[in-house]
Amino acid sequence: MLIFVQILRAVAAAMVVWHHARHEAGLLAARGAGETLSPGTVLPWWAGVDLFFVISGLVIVLASRPLAGLPGGRGHFLAHRIARVAPLYWLTTLLYLALALAVPSLLGEAGALVRDPAFVAASFLFWPLARPDGAVQPLYGLGWTLNYEMAFYAVFALGLGFTLRGAVVWLCAVLVALVTAGTLVALPMPLAFWADPIVLEFALGALLGLARVFGLRLPPVLRIGLTLLGAAGFLLAARQLQDGAEVPGFARPLLVGLPALLLVAAAALGPSRDRAEITALPAPMRGLARLGDASYALYLTHPFALRVGREALLRLGLAPALHPWGAMLAMTGLALAVSLAVHAVVERPLTERLRSFLENRVGARRRPVFIGREDR
């Protein structure tokens, strides 16, 4: 198991949660909890998404190694990806839809989107559509990243008829061609969405995965150096980019994607650890790895938990005393606890059942060997 990749998943999800917790703290301040946080920030917390994209590219290559060039390999791959991504996203989108129908004013402009059946259907089918304000986001806004993920899976699946190296070359060629076309001409939707340079982060992760498959390993001192360089890159990005501001064009993969690649490389280019070695690790590391298992649940459920936490702090009268950092820690802690429970009770059982069902539907003759937790 690549324990440090799992830990990095936990870090990536926690960064996104903290980014949104800052927004919730601003809403607390607007409702009398205290002064608004200053706009400056130490790290680009939203860059947790970029870490996820690079990790996704890495994991897909490692997980699909037994499938490249095999009959039925594409079906196996897509069955695993759909089972991994769709169930929990559909559930959170249904919850969001229910809230929008019950209390449209609670969600502002998003509450009106439920009256557009085509938009709702596209949201469930991972198909990018523009909202009335021009933002290309599904009904549940966090799903914008999954619209990229599913397109990435579809392109990679087409390449699995080649060797693993051929699949990665195919993926990189398609993504580079898309981004180049989007830079040169105005593409129609949804091609314009998929041609955003952020998709190059998947290619970076896939190339890293291929390097690991072909035996690249780095000694600890070099991996520590990559970690420090990646962290320094994030610190520099935070100084160059405004917190929460839109990062246009190639600025995001250059200023954030490359540091993310360095961090993921540091985590991925070391030795794998067996169960006994993992059990012997310090408890905080094992806890972060467990949170890494639940990182997808954390990503999808944290907006609900943060808002429940915000309202609880206000109604209990604790917000003024805790604002801002104590309130942010309390809301984040609630989000972590909810995600662990959702992962254990909802996400993992649903994923396993849907995966088994889909594998039977594609007529699998044997269960492919995936890499375990890194695939979850």
Considering the chains and any ligands shown, give keywords for the structure.
disordered C terminus, globular, mainly alpha, 376 residues, 68% helix, single chain
Topology, please?
Layout: H1 3-30, H2 48-63, H3 73-102, H4 117-124, H5 144-159, H6 164-184, H7 191-194, H8 200-213, H9 220-240, H10 251-268, H11 275-279, H12 283-293, H13 295-315, H14 319-322, H15 325-361
Helix pairs in contact: 1-2, 1-10, 1-12, 1-13, 1-15, 2-8, 2-10, 3-5, 3-13, 3-15, 5-6, 6-8, 8-10, 9-10, 13-15
Structural notes for this entry:
This protein has 376 residues and is mainly alpha-helical. 68% of the residues lie in helices and 0% in strands. It has 15 helices and no strands. The longest helix has 37 residues, at 325-361. The relative contact order is 0.18.
Let me know the largest β-sheet.
none
Low-confidence stretches: 364-376
Distance, first to last CA? 12 Å
Number of helices: 15
Number of strands: 0
Q: What share of residues are in beta strands?
A: under 5%
Return the average pLDDT rounded to an integer. 89
Portion of residues in helices? 55-70%
How would you classify the helix and strand content by structural class?
mainly alpha
Shape: globular
* Rg result: 21 Å
Q: H/E element string?
A: HHHHHHHHHHHHHHH
In short:
The protein has 15 helices and no strands. By secondary structure, it is mainly alpha-helical.
